[in-house]
Amino acid sequence: ILEINRSLAGENSLEYAQSLNNLASIYYDNGIYEKSERLSLEAKEILLTNVGDYHFEFGRCISILGLISGIKGNYVNAESLLTQALKIAEKYSESNPIPLVRALSNLAVLYVHWVNFDKAERLFLKALKLLDSTTGKSNREYLKHEYYLANLYITMGDYGSMKGLLSNILEQQCLLLGENDPDTLKTKAATAYVYLYHGDNDTAESLLKETLNKEDQNSLSFGICLSTLAYIYQFKGNYEEWVAWNERMAEKPAGNGQHAKG
Q: Could you tell me the pTM of the whole model?
């Protein structure tokens, strides 16, 4: 499609810039950040020339650039780009609220990495309120953002009420998305860590095993689940299982450390 738009519409066209954005997004989702950044920068120059810096496609473009800046640890530049992307998403929110929700989430995730939890919480709550008023609560997007908020509280060390919240999210995801859905598996793993914190090693072990049986072995969360399960067996003094799971960890291919866009 990229080459078709290049040949039919030209390298300086909006259509070509859209194709660059689409491909950059795919590379980002697969952890290929260098190619994603290069394509986004190319799209940015085309869009600035043709439609200016307040177009929807320009917002998509700088969102990816902002996320990549955050991954690189350049939080100041990432905040500037993601804040600008948020303002653009607000302009188009009446026709489609989902890009605004994701723009809020992208900025919130940056603040989590930047250890600015108050700002992150406000943005996640704003995204959930917007989703509740437009799409309701019984959908993937709402449950995903509920999970993001719960994960924030866990990062802050607030494990007290998270067991109930995560269990509720997990129940809804199993009903709506199925037990093998990637979002369901992420929540199941997070719930296991909360049970582990509360000293319920048996429930944590059961949830982690369920996750490992269905999770992509190349994913980052698969490796984290493996190491946590090995820790549980070491804690229990079950050294045969501990050795077995550590050997499985040694055989696991390295994941790409994918970062979500929200």
A: 0.81
